[in-house]
């Protein structure tokens, strides 16, 4: 497709602008796209500003300047304000230092704040069952320590059932 403006060069840029439900599209070559002012933005867009906006909007109220200045990583000395400006951590300890501010953000973006990972289909056929058995063993120990013996017996039976399932599927 040729550039809609000069009609000579190959169009390599597709520009689309939507203002008040009115869509404007242009297919331009690189040179014409650089010269084109009709697609300029009222405010400059920055991914760091976008992420900072997400961070700030994940709280009940605005972040106070004192909080931004005082919240600092114990390990590398990075302040929360500098993190917001850079969009990157200074070290692995920064996550723990800024945890109270980050957890609401992660929940807002991902819907949860834990990472469970993925298990390859071929390698992890029984991984879910093994994890469930481990979890049930912890529950069993807890039930025994609380002297909830009926519940402990039910958990024990469930562990045996899952172990039998594992033995049957490994044949």
Give the strand order of the largest sheet, numbering strands 1, 2, ... along the chain.
1-2
Mean pLDDT: 79
Task: Using the alpha-carbon principal axes, give the shape.
Answer: elongated
Based on secondary structure, the structural category is mainly alpha
What is the H/E string? EEHHHHHHHH
Question: How many H/I helices?
Answer: 8
Domain module count: 3
From the N-terminal CA to the C-terminal CA, the straight-line distance is 60 Å
Radius of gyration: 28 Å
What share of residues is helical? 40-55%
Instruction: Classify the beta-strand content into a percent band.
Output: 5-15%
Q: In total, how many beta strands?
A: 2
Largest sheet: 2 strands, antiparallel
Walk me through this protein's architecture.
By secondary structure, the protein is mainly α. The protein has three domains: 1-40, no CATH class; 47-110, no CATH class; 127-169. It has eight helices and two strands. The chain has helices spanning 30-35, 47-57, 65-70, 80-86, 94-97, 99-110, 127-145, 149-169; strands at 13-19, 22-28. Strand 1 (13-19) and strand 2 (22-28) form a beta hairpin. The chain starts with 12 loop residues before the first strand and ends with a helix. The model is unreliable at 58-62 (pLDDT under 50).
Short description:
The protein is mainly α and 171 residues long. The protein has helices at residues 30-35, 47-57, 65-70, 80-86, 94-97, 99-110, 127-145, 149-169, and strands at 13-19, 22-28.
Give the secondary structure arrangement, pairings included:
Layout: E1 13-19, E2 22-28, H1 30-35, H2 47-57, H3 65-70, H4 80-86, H5 94-97, H6 99-110, H7 127-145, H8 149-169
Antiparallel strand pairs: 1-2
Helix pairs in contact: 7-8
